[in-house]
Amino acid sequence: MTAYVEAHELGRWYGQVVGLNELTASIDAPIAGLLGPNGAGKSTFLKLVAGEIRPSRGSVRVLGERPFANRELFRRIGFCPQQDALYEGQTGIEFVILLLRLHGFDRKEARARGWRALERVELTDAAERATGTYSKGMRQRLKLAQAFAHGPELLVVDEPLTGLDPVMRHTMIALFRELADSGIRVLVSSHVLHEVEAMTNDIVLLHRGRLLAQGDVGEVRDLISRHPRRIRIGAGEPRRLARSLIELEQVTSVTFASPTDLTIETRNSEAFFRELTPIAAAGGFRVQSLDCSDENLEAVFDYLVQ
């Protein structure tokens, strides 16, 4: 598949603050997840892709064109920013229609497209309410509706699931998949790994304005396979449990995080979990909690940076 975003030594800074630094990447997945902790440069990169800001150095091409101040390209891109900037006195449908009219659609077509977009994000019941009365989740859905209502080739979405309840998150993830199946390429950012994994396996990891890794989620996870996994266990008798677990070949260390919690380091978490269940059952250690913190995105970043 032809890359729809190509960045070469792309940089953007704000005075003395570096937002993005020498990023070179090519993105061609139907849905690509842009991942990174807060401050990683995700929003800066998406603004450069959407043509909102100009690169300080390097270049970026979107759908084969330079995006900054490219009015014709703007018609081919849908952008849902992280920032909330609605006209509080307008109704939801008025807001979407206004932006469609600015795209060049006549009043009738804009109204039809606006209602279809609001239906897809399940906002028709609130379409004629003022946006000032919308909840955080409703505002997120409205921003998303305006981003794809005009039928873009590329949808650029910054932290779209923030503020949504679990049911609506599931609905929005399904919508992104549906849009990708219809031929719209989707570039979506998040700092939550499992949210992106529910949409796509293709990820781009940013850290402190630089490209840290890119590829399949499994391939990126393989990069940390040489590091031990940390597993925190809460138990009624943690010291007795620790004596049993330290005997396992795959356990490299045991430390006590609190009077009731111990942290295990293992180079083979699957083997460890297979051994843990019969040990816990036979020993009566009263295991109360189990948390593998190294499965989260922050752990991936920590290991890759190291």
Description:
The structure is a single chain. With 306 residues, this protein is an alpha/beta fold. It has 2 domains: 5-222, P-loop containing nucleotide triphosphate hydrolases (Rossmann fold), CATH 3.40.50.300; 229-305, 2-Layer Sandwich (Alpha-Beta Plaits), CATH 3.30.70.100. The protein contains 11 helices and 13 strands. The chain has helices at residues 42-50, 71-74, 92-102, 107-120, 136-148, 166-181, 193-197, 217-222, 238-245, 269-283, 297-305, and strands at 5-14, 17-27, 31-35, 57-62, 77-80, 154-158, 185-190, 202-207, 210-216, 229-235, 251-256, 261-266, 287-291. The strands form 3 sheets. Strands 5-6-7-3-8-9 form a 6-stranded mixed β-sheet, sandwiched between helices. A 4-stranded antiparallel β-sheet has the order 11-12-10-13. A hairpin with a 4-residue loop joins β11 (251-256) and β12 (261-266). α3 crosses α4. It is elongated, with a radius of gyration of 23 Å.
